[in-house]
Design goal:
The protein has about 550 residues and is α/β, with parallel strands linked by helices. It is built from 16 helices and 19 strands.
């Protein structure tokens, strides 16, 4: 049987638009000879719909478009897609379901059984667990259809298994000719290796092919990388759809030919995830222009380069706002960056305003430093108010956000913290990747000592450990959630340095609660995945 894995980019809540997108891919795949088309998890609603699910009219409308736009037009080729379904019995009101449609009617419904509640996921809030499933019989084949997390039972960051139930093994025990997984599996650095390991293990265990169709695109902070896959009965990957693009992967179950396999580095996938995340954030919100405050430093330079890739240079406006503390090199470097990228640069001097405000009270040194980014934030937001369909990008990186090395209501202003899930050491890796063919981010910016330039001769290392040391500690504390005692044994940094970093993280939780959304590229992004109380006394 020829099966088309249809990797699409739905918009959350655009029910009719998503249904039409499904049907356009269905018709194309059918014309190319497909006998069954498979679409991702929650293809009709988009993922994640969050509390839209609590609106009964939203769920009813999603079912209406399935029955009105999809079901009547499915002829001579089956179609499987994900959406929400009512639970008519006890428990939560809804299921996360896969509808199997053939010749104008729904012939099977498969309900998701494993409902994740870690990282960004909170599916138990909305859905009832499926009560088990059986193979779906279609055109002489027994199909083991299941949904996303149903295959993740044996993969966990914790020592114990997250779930007692293993839906894939239970399907295998009943006898299947192939597994089909409908996913909305978000991107995170190195996550695709885990996905491949899971599917390979099931395929080789049960000696049948394993097919997975994943969604692609971005909704709010969450990016989906696509990369739908096919594994042969030996557990070897034989074909893969494009990454970060819509695609159709055609599979002939009787002749599993080797197709395209993506080879990409971590830094390349993070770059592509950030660009797609920003691009879809703009497009799906009806936005066109991006405004960035340029300091002459690495973070704003990287944000500018990523913005240019996402929306085109003609839609990026940079503003440099020097004071008495701004070095001549920073202004010159900003001009060179914008010239290299072909983006607009405005220069707005703020020293007079800063001077006037600094005389309005008996302010300490830190207050005087923070007045400057707050003036800049005010000007950037005025640009956003004046330029139609524009937003400000907050340029802070994850290292700075973690320890509060940022000014709330200043450089945290914006509609999106583009690199808020990217550590400072990774910022430099991304800059080198962007410069792989030609120097776009000037070498002078990459090589200079990082500085906020809020007072004379200021350097980041006046306040923070060197970034490689800082990032090593942060990854162990934030990503791996190790205790201070465990971190002492794993790093070369002295105990007092580790303690200083951890205390800075804890002291600045209130800032992170007020940050713009970030584009998630790690397993534990601030704002989205990490939920710590502001008031607590535990390190």
């Amino acid at each position: 049987m020829k099966i088309a894995l249809c990797q699409i980019n739905p918009v959350v809540g655009d029910l009719e638009g998503n249904a039409r997108l499904v049907m356009s891919y269905y018709e194309k795949a059918k014309s190319d000879g497909a006998e069954l088309c498979v679409f991702p998890e929650l293809a009709i609603t988009g993922y994640p719909p969050l509390d839209l699910i609590e609106r009964k009219d939203f769920v009813d409308s999603s079912l209406d478009v399935v029955n009105r736009i999809v079901v009547p037009n499915v002829k001579d080729c089956g179609l499987v897609l994900g959406s929400i379904n009512h639970n008519l019995y006890s428990g939560k009101k809804y299921y996360n379901s896969a509808f199997f449609i053939d010749n104008g009617r729904i012939i099977y419904v498969v309900n998701k059984q494993l409902l994740p509640t870690y990282d960004l996921f909170d599916e138990r809030r909305y859905y009832e667990e499926g009560k088990g499933s059986s193979p779906v019989y279609y055109k002489g084949l027994r199909l083991g259809i299941h949904i996303c997390e149903d295959m993740w039972r044996n993969e966990s960051q914790y020592s114990q298994k997250l779930y007692e139930n293993d839906p894939v093994d239970k399907l295998g025990e009943q006898g299947v000719d192939l597994f089909i997984n409908l996913s909305a599996s978000p991107f995170a650095r190195a996550k695709d290796i885990k996905r491949q390991r899971i599917m390979s293990r099931y395929a080789s265990k049960w000696k049948v092919p394993f097919l997975m169709v994943n969604t692609v695109g971005a909704n709010d902070s969450v990016v989906f990388d696509g990369r739908s896959k096919v594994f042969d009965p030996h557990g070897k990957i034989v074909a893969e759809a494009k990454s970060f693009e819509e695609d159709i992967l055609m599979v002939d179950t009787g002749d599993l030919k080797h197709g395209n396999i993506i080879k990409s580095t971590d830094v390349e996938t993070v770059h592509d995830a950030l660009v797609l995340g920003l691009k879809d954030y703009m497009k799906k919100n009806g936005l066109e222009k991006i405004i960035i405050g340029l300091s002459g430093g690495m973070d704003s330079a990287l944000c500018t380069a990523l913005s240019k890739d996402a929306v085109g240079p003609e839609n990026v406006i940079c503003v440099t706002m020097p004071t008495r503390y701004s070095s001549e090199g920073s202004i010159k470097d900003s001009k060179k960056l914008c010239s290299n990228l072909g983006v607009r640069l405005d220069e707005v001097h703020i020293d007079d305003v800063f001077g006037d405000l600094s005389k309005k009270g008996e302010f300490g040194e830190m207050a005087l430093e923070n007045i400057q980014p707050r003036i800049r934030g005010l000007i950037l937001m005025a640009y956003a108010n004046s330029v139609p369909k524009s937003i400000v990008i907050a340029p802070g990186n994850k290292s700075e956000i973690a320890v509060g090395y940022c000014t709330i209501y200043g450089d945290t202003c914006g509609a999106l913290a583009l690199i808020g899930d990217v550590y400072k050491t990774e910022v430099y890796e991304l800059a080198k990747y962007i410069n792989r063919d030609v120097e776009l981010i000037p070498r002078e910016i990459i090589e200079k000592h990082p500085s906020a330039e809020l007072k004379h001769d200021q350097k980041d290392t006046d306040t923070l450990p060197p970034y490689p040391v800082l990032d090593e500690i942060l990854k162990l504390y934030v990503e791996d959630q190790l205790s201070p005692g465990e971190i002492y044994t794993k790093v070369k940094a002295k105990k007092d340095v580790v303690d200083k970093v951890i205390n800075m993280v804890l002291r600045n939780e209130f800032k992170r609660k007020q940050l713009p959304p970030v584009i998630k590229v790690s397993s534990r992004a601030f704002v989205l995945d990490r939920r710590w109380p502001i008031v607590h006394r535990f390190r």
